[in-house]
Design brief:
heterodimer; A: 482 residues; seven-stranded mixed sheet; B: 379 residues; alpha+beta; four-stranded antiparallel sheet; 10 helices
Amino acid sequence: MNSLKSDVVIIGAGPGGYAAAFLAADLGMQVSIVDPEAHPGGVCLYRGCIASKALLHAAKVLSDAEDAKQFGLNFGNPQIDLSKLRNWKDDIILKLTSGLSSLTKSRNITYIQGYAKFRNSNELEIRSVSDEKSDDFKVLTFQKAIIATGSKPAHFPYAPLSESIMDSTMALQIKNIPKTLLVVGAGYIGLELGSVYANLGSEVTIVEAGDTLLPAVDRDLVAVFAKKQKNLFKEILLSVKVEKLTQTDHGAKAQIVSEDGEEKQMFFDKILSAIGRNPNSQFLGLENTNVKTDEKGFIQTDETGKTFDENIYAIGDVTGEPMLAHAASAQGKIAAEAIAGENVIYAPRVVPAVIFTDPQIAWCGITQSQAKTMDIEVVRFPWGASGRALTMNRTDGLTKLFIDRKSKRILGMGIAGPEAGEMIAEGVLAIEMGAVAGDIGMSIHAHPTLSETVMEGAESFFGQATHLYRPQTKTKPTKDTI
Amino acid sequence: MEFNIPELGENINSGTVVSVKVKVGDIVQKDDVLFELETEKAVLEVPAPESSKIVKVLIENGQDVEVGEHILDFEPQEEILKEHNEIIEKTILPKTEVNTNLSKTDAKILPAASPSVRREARNLQVDLEKTEGSGSHGRILSEDLEKTKEGGIRRVPMSKLRKTIARNIEHSYFNIPQVTQNDEADITSMEEFRKNSSTSSFKISPSAMILKVLSKALRKFPEFNASIDMEKGEILYKEDINIGVAADTKDGLLVPVIFHADQKSLSEIASELIEKSEKARSRKLTIDEMKGSSFTFTNLGSIGGSFFTPIIPSGEVAILGVGRSSIKPKYIDQAFLPKLFLPLSLSYDHRLIDGAQAVRFLRWIVNSLENPWYMEVDS
């Protein structure tokens, strides 16, 4: 039995774990990372953000080529070399993960490939990945541990994964392009992967138990997506419950029940289950520590990331919503600083969210339903008035700002359209800095860019947007009063 | 079992928790201190009623609590053994509520301050909600934090003791028409006697000497050991001579009482003063040791200063203050001789005491300090 020692050990090398590890090392601590993969990266790189965004880029190129017919460019039917696409995606992942490996080495962080399990509040046992059955394990003694084990796709208990019933991890491997695909779940994962397969040529049907696409997102933003992509999917079935998924000889079968109780059987080549994510907190030996989880298995922490166990911190997906890589990174850094003895808490004003469909949907801060209870003016700037959007043949977008009538402060932003994910950073910065509408309106934005829609949105709060005429009302504030 | 705030003493209905000594899961023995409670005048240690395990703590430092309030849950010891192995389940509480809804901002509009300024504020322990921003639209800048911290205004809640002092002083000042009479006593021979009588292990303080004389004076002038009931139009003459002695502590003014001062010897008074002022400094005085005074004495001489206008505590009709004694020339037998003079300031309630009587009272004290035989003769 080998034994190892570390000031801080981080379990899980996703964007939360490696951010925490790197900062802890930069703060002078001796750090180890334990992760089953050969390199750091976690779900985000291997089976999530990066892999899906590579494929979504490919999908966007396909749909842009199709759109180009409208202004006289005809490429003919695309030839898709699936193995080349897959290799390109895998190369990106390898490049990024091996880059992280060398960053790990240059910081003198010990990277241990294996499965970690707590023996107590000071020791981990680490088992080999290659030989899971072996009783051989190493013991690592630590002062502090950070659990950053993330989450995994939730599964239907009655629908075992198989060749034709996939979760998001399998779907990202794009073994083939099924002729027909059923996506269960109209959240962001279902819509992103559904878009990839639809653009690659699958006939995609989406079923959702709720009565709307993207239930957490403002309706006007979802409408931009729905309008643009009304023909992308064969069918979107809302308020439909999936009873059972079964593998068949030629594919898979879904038994569904519609809202009015009508039962139906549907047959597809493949089915993708995208019904949410569950925390990876089960096999960590948490019962040997004082760490506590809630009824869903999410680890409970305070604002620094500290769990009920003095020595153990937890960050990222395993601690619950919003289950976003960038939130995990921020939490990881706070945990590392807290362990270093700094007086810090994780207290962002906003965490941006981006859905990488086409159009992209991005938002931060308050949403429409929250705005209802406040004295908020929602200003919308439709992209039809944006020169840049016209030159991109994408006038379907929308930028909107939530502005507090009294203080004129920007409290929320929502964007639907290409590059929405890039543009949302301005909203995050404005809210974090406490910017008022005038600050954005008076900051010069480059012309012609989509970012001008944010500036003009702010100006239209005062009824003074250059490219959008809104009749002045008596109640409209003027810039002089700000 | 529930543990409620016990009866703390007469007229004490509430207090502020200043130091919680136990946390969930702690095993305490009978009479172990559970927490300290700052009441109007004393800090009380609240003991465990029996050996037990703490299963719930409903109070935190700084919280105001009332007599009878449910503040802890505990389990008697026998039950502890049964489930000793399950203790870990309940031992640790998270510092704050877990925020599972990170993507949403609070509906409340927070102060305009950038992330770096917010972090700095946290380190400087500056409350942004109470910080005035000097940037546009009230944006809080880094400089504003320094201002708030150093030169500007820092809002701090009053301690229970300070609130009590403030209320009492305000009440006395606005409700008692008071006049201060000043006089000086030649205490050259008193000091000589005092120094000769003190040993290295037992010191008689000037206060003890003055208290001795004062207690006799109060017996001779009973209207100074009284209070007024304006509603009924009555004067309440008090049989016992209980002299409150103001003590300066780091937390504020405390007034332990020397009971039956007139019946105590000089050395008894001297040693009681030492004991009580030590207890005052360590805030170990009980409520009972600080109530029931009929007259108050305050000696600022050890710090310095001369005459001043002490304020009469409510329920009393006069207060005697003394400052630092100093050597002054005294004209005796055609010559100026250096003598040690003590400045005395008597504030009196002019509703009950006329000016002439106040002078007589103070003169009597001065004469007795100058020549202790005087009080034996004129009593």
